[in-house]
């Protein structure tokens, strides 16, 4: 999924304050000395240098040297401290221009360093980087804690926020002033003495723990690879077998077949492998990440993280972490978030019972003599899919070529956003891996340069699992125009040499989803960096909505073609896909919601009473969690909430956003031009994409739809009874 600069340091304060940083008066002398000490070295450090080259400048990914990272971080933080001190100690009365705008300008070098940091963290991780990360994480946390502990800086921000000048500012300027003020107020700016000191200490401790948690999960993903022999491949599609052979060869095990410990490898293996013992092994290995009782076990870290978070929000007067986290989200409080979950949960688990009954019947008919277990669910669900809908997932996969799907996404972007994507010749723009390709994005009508789109699609050692989007530069105009550098990152299993990469229908939806984030970045028209800060239960909405265009006739008829024959996908197969649209929805909804509910429970319960494994088991039992399904992210590898704070107590946000998605999709379905209706598309871009966080999301949605979203649309989408 999206990882901007603000989330890289795992501090929610940065979400509110954009690129700004701060220091207390006491550190001014040492910060200046540090700045002088590293200045000479920093002048030659490519990680800090302004982007150069074409397209308004691009990151020097071809010159990345890990030896430069630590000095670059130290130097850029020192420079940023000096910039912030100048703002805090300005003798002139505080104004929007000399306080808020100057904070928006500060920290450009630090932002560039974090761009490279993010590449090493997510795309090119290594033991050497993790050593630097472990050393620097608490120092970075301490650095950013100084934002809320700079009394002079907060006083200036508060003065602007409470001034008569606020009424004269543009809506976006008022919004970023509030976001900046709220970031301080929410994150301890009003604390004094020991409480202020303790708040900073907790942030440093959490930064270390978050890093350890993420690295433990990565270690288990890299350390547990199952190698198969040819006689263990029964049931597996040819495309998967070829990809597994290539993965083994890359790891020095030619002649074998590698099943890696990632979802993109686990999911198809559990769907197709006839070897039940191997399915169980792969399932247990995947779902036990971080829970193996060894040096990479995360159970103790979870309790420490929860305890520190609870103590920290207690310093601010909040009863629970969720109460603190959700006050500026669309949900506003944990009760509203849990309320949405409870509206959908009964229908989801009721559907699971139906799905399991169908699967058990198939198993019994086959004489398999078993009771459905979690490692059987995907396998027998596929058998039910074939029996009920005559739909073979592997047959569908033959029409889902990664390159053709990319062309389909470009088509959609052209129709809705008027964007044109042109490949950038290899070598013109530096990349950090040979798999990365780059496209220039322009306006189809005017030819205006919008930005670049980087694509890093394939899994490899050192790359974190999952799919995500990020930016290396965001659109701003307040200090000269900056164009967008956006990126999509996935973990598809690369096809064998000379073969196209074929992906599942679910993966195709994810591909469109992440491209939705990229379009959100590329379509921005805001002026200020802070306008790009996200509201977590809203930012997934735009990307979820884009998934809907995968099933439009224009995409199906033109881009879903057989990888061997080039023939379009048959109409009868399309009909089966659409008929089966809500198939297995019980599984998908329940595994996700179990994680979302557990997230809220973890952050509304006294951590002193929590032992992660027992707590997970007890709470899921109380919910009536079906035994045949695990949480999508079990506690010990739930990186969304324990390797940082971006999604902590906010994983429900995917469902909150899905309500908006279903409701917005009905707006297109009801329009004369359907999903390509020009009038609705214009409002989509104007109010839901280009505005970013320069407007409260609930207000933006009302401008698009004319009303608030209704949960009934979600229930209809999933084939659940609306009355439940």
TrEMBL record:
Pfam families: Peptidase_M3, TOP_N. Binds 1 zinc ion. Its EC number is 3.4.24.70. Residues 1-22 form the signal peptide. Residues 76-196 form the Oligopeptidase A N-terminal domain. Its cofactor is Zn(2+). CDD domains: M3A_DCP. Keywords: Hydrolase, Metal-binding, Metalloprotease, Protease, Signal, Zinc. The keyword Hydrolase applies. It is an enzyme of class 3 (hydrolase). Residues 269-718 form the Peptidase M3A/M3B catalytic domain. Coiled coil: none annotated. It catalyses: Hydrolysis of oligopeptides, with broad specificity. Gly or Ala commonly occur as P1 or P1' residues, but more distant residues are also important, as is shown by the fact that Z-Gly-Pro-Gly-|-Gly-Pro-Ala is cleaved, but not Z-(Gly)(5). Belongs to the peptidase M3 family. PANTHER family: DIPEPTIDYL CARBOXYPEPTIDASE (PTHR43660). This is oligopeptidase A.
